[in-house]
Design a protein that fits this description.
Blueprint: H1 6-17, E1 53-54, H2 61-70, E2 76-77, E3 80-81, E4 86-87, E5 92-93, E6 98-99, E7 104-105, E8 110-111, E9 116-117, E10 122-123, E11 128-129, E12 134-135, E13 140-141, E14 146-147, E15 152-153, E16 158-159, E17 164-165, E18 170-171, E19 176-177, E20 186-188, E21 193-194, H3 198-204
Parallel strand pairs: 1-2, 3-6, 4-7, 5-8, 6-9, 7-10, 8-11, 9-12, 10-13, 11-14, 12-15, 13-16, 14-17, 15-18, 16-19, 18-20
Antiparallel strand pairs: 20-21
Length: 205
């Protein structure tokens, strides 16, 4: 387990529910522990046996990206799926993905590396979930939605069919997204609108 914060509690619980043995947690703070698991040292110094896999138990997309980059080539990654999640056998999951209880992933959806599908999220058919994305509890991605790298979709948000969210964009909790979003933008509300000024939006796009 890489990370020992509050998000990691749910990842550890998901691992145990799925039948994994958790050997310990690596964290930059040696005083931070989780469920009494052994402390494995600073993540950047982590060395594992060939038959041991790790998962990044950190909710921040940017922090997961940074950790994965620093550990590239040194760690074998696990994908963790809670037994109470429903994942189509015709969905494709890359390495390091975590899917929590109650989540649904429908056919022909691709979930790329180190993405999080949080508790009770709904990901319908033909979605493309980018690397390091986080779909928060209760969020709904309807059919043919594309999330580029690093997108965060807030709790209870809904993304309409065929919409694309640009790299490292953010959708606020409860928002309803009916149009494409450019990179690095934050959208909130019903229907969702950008927090940036129209001029800033045009410059970014």
């Amino acid at each position: 387990m890489i990370g020992a914060g509050n998000h990691a509690k749910v990842v550890v619980d998901t691992c145990w529910a799925a039948g994994w043995t958790v050997l310990g947690a690596a964290d930059k703070d040696p005083c931070r522990t989780i469920f009494g698991l052994p402390y494995l040292g600073h993540p950047e110094k982590l060395r594992l046996e060939p038959d041991v896999r790790a998962v990044i138990a950190v909710g921040s997309n940017a922090d997961r990206y940074d950790l994965a980059r620093k550990l590239e080539g040194r760690i074998q990654w696990a994908s963790i799926i809670h037994p109470a999640a429903t994942v189509s056998p015709r969905a494709h999951l890359e390495e390091g993905v975590v899917i929590f209880a109650g989540a649904v992933v429908q056919p022909d959806t691709l979930v790329r590396r180190h993405a999080i599908l949080n508790t009770g999220s709904r990901v319908d058919h033909d979605n493309d979930i980018g690397a390091f994305c986080h779909v928060a509890p209760g969020a709904v991605l309807t059919g043919m939605v594309t999330l580029r790298e690093g997108v965060f979709v807030g709790a209870g948000a809904v993304v309409a069919p065929g919409v694309t969210l640009g790299e490292w964009s953010t959708v606020g909790a409860g928002a309803v997204v009916l149009q494409n979003i450019g990179p690095d933008l934050t959208y909130v509300g019903v229907p969702a609108k950008s927090l940036e000024s129209p001029t800033a939006n045009r410059k970014i796009r």
